[in-house]
Amino acid sequence: MTGIELSGIRKTFGETEVVKGLDLSIRAEEFLVILGPSGCGKSTLLRLIAGLEDVTQGRITIHGLDVTRTESGQRGCAMVFQNYALYPHMTVAGNMAYGLKVAGVPRRERAERVARIAAMLELGALLERRPHELSGGQRQRVAMGRAMIRSPRIFLFDEPLSNLDAKLRAQLRLEIKRLHRDLGTTSIFVTHDQLEAMTMADRMVVMNAGRIEQVGTPQDIYRRPATRFVAGFIGAPAMNIIPALIDEGGRAMAPGGWHPCPEAIWALAPGTEVELGVRPADVVAMASASAGPLFTPDVNEDVGTEVHLHARGAGLDLTLSTPAGAPHPLQDFAISFPAHVAHCFVEETGQRAALRHSIPERTEAPWPETSLSSI
Ligand SMILES: Nc1ncnc2c1ncn2[C@@H]1O[C@H](COP(=O)(O)OP(=O)(O)OP(=O)(O)O)[C@@H](O)[C@H]1O
Ligand SMILES: [Mg+2]
Q1: Which range of residues forms the domain containing residue 69?
Q2: Residue 13: CB within 6 Å of ligand 1?
């Protein structure tokens, strides 16, 4: 069943178009994450769905009903914001029950619902405190409780974890996932943190400058970024990008006349300018190569589980990522990578190009020990 359907959505503020014709189907009970850089229109999109802003053009349906012109209060959406916006003079219980009180729900039922939601969010012991007596994480849980208590049809989260420290973020991330598993409420969660997006999403939407770049599962998007923008935005450390030109044989040739991935034959016309992408973990370092430039190690970053090696050569800054304890090059090295981990984007359009022939994925480890033994 479709939860929310957005068709041809446009939003302009004055002269500026902020959402530029956007189509998206959000499934009922899905946890959808919208990821994109600051200013790309994420909050605006949520506010349009919630009815806090009117669309300039387009149609919004929720569970099959056209709500494009429906008042915010009638859409069944509850929103949780980055700044908790709690009433400072009210207790936790008062904050949570306020919406119900305004809606005329009797006192006893209010108390019951507060108790039930507080138990779910482990706020039971804090009900008589005021917001200034709570930690950031507790405040954000109260804000979530306030949204949950009205049993909304849809949760809209606008970067609710941004103000919290890393440990609390990770903890609340799990709590929100558990709540979603237990309640099954259709949820849209906005963030500009890719780890948060990847770990929370059933499906992810990557937005850029008012448009959708790609929709898919975190794995789809990581493994097959549809555009150059997505390739650069998803994955840490960021994907290596090598500018290249398609030669007569369909191979991508880098400046200086070398082929970073000679195995890959792209379905593109000779002379097409491209950007060849390869993730740091997919680059294989070799003691020497029959052809191609050498790269010189620059600095290493040890992040515990892996080491990121930054190197320079052929006018490029290159990053390699190797599991902790695995050999990594200490001297000049050459690189290679198989076609199935190579990504190619047409420079002019930013769109992903396909291989001319599909290549079966290799199963062996990307780090053949022998390739480094002599470095
Ligand atoms: N009420 C408004 N009037 C004019 N411009 C606005 C208004 N609201 C948002 N904008 C502009 O629309 C663009 C998108 O804003 P939006 O808040 O949706 O971005 P965002 O993706 O949520 O960014 P962030 O990650 O920083 O929260 C921005 O350029 C912003 O300045
Ligand atoms: Mg925002």
Answers
A1: 2-223
A2: yes
Number of Cβ within a 10 Å radius of residue 25:
14
Q: Are residues 171 and 62 in the same domain?
A: yes
Residue 229 belongs to a domain: no
Residue nearest to atom 18 of ligand 1 (CA): 41
Centre of ligand 2 to C-alpha 307, Å, is: 33
Q: Residue 3: name the closest of 30, 43, 34, 35 by CA.
A: 30
Whether omega before 237 lies within 30 degrees of 0, making that bond cis, reads: yes
Q: Residue 369: its pLDDT value, please?
A: 43
Strand pairing of 186-191 and 154-158? parallel
Query: Closest ligand 1 atom to the C-alpha of 210?
Result: 14
Phi, psi of 197 (to 5 degrees): -65, -50
Task: Express each pLDDT in 46-104 by its tens digit.
Answer: 999 999 999 999 999 999 999 999 999 899 999 998 887 899 999 999 999 998 999 89
Does 348 share its domain with 306? yes
Mean per-residue pLDDT, 220-236: 96
The total of other beta-carbon atoms located within 10 Å of residue 251's CB is: 19
* Ligand 1 atom nearest residue 46's Cα: 18
Q: Are 298 and 328 in contact (CB under 8 A)?
A: no
Summary mean pLDDT of the chain: 92
Q: Are residues 321 and 218 in the same domain?
A: no
CA 45 to ligand 1 center in whole angstroms: 9
Tokens for 247?
A: 């030669």
Point out the domain boundary residue: 223, 252, 286: 223
d(CA 242, CA 298): 18
Asked whether residue 91 is assigned to any structural domain, the reply reads yes
Q: Which ligand gives the minimal distance to the CA of 41? A: 1
Residue carrying the six token digits 């482990």: 122
374: pLDDT strictly greater than 50: no
pLDDT 10s digits, 106-131 = 999 999 999 999 998 889 999 999 99
3-state helix/strand/coil string of 88-148? CCCCHHHHHHHHHHHCCCCHHHHHHHHHHHHHHCCCHHHCCCCHHHCCHHHHHHHHHHHHH
Whether 231 is covered by a domain: the verdict is no
238 closest CA partner among 229, 246, 247: 229
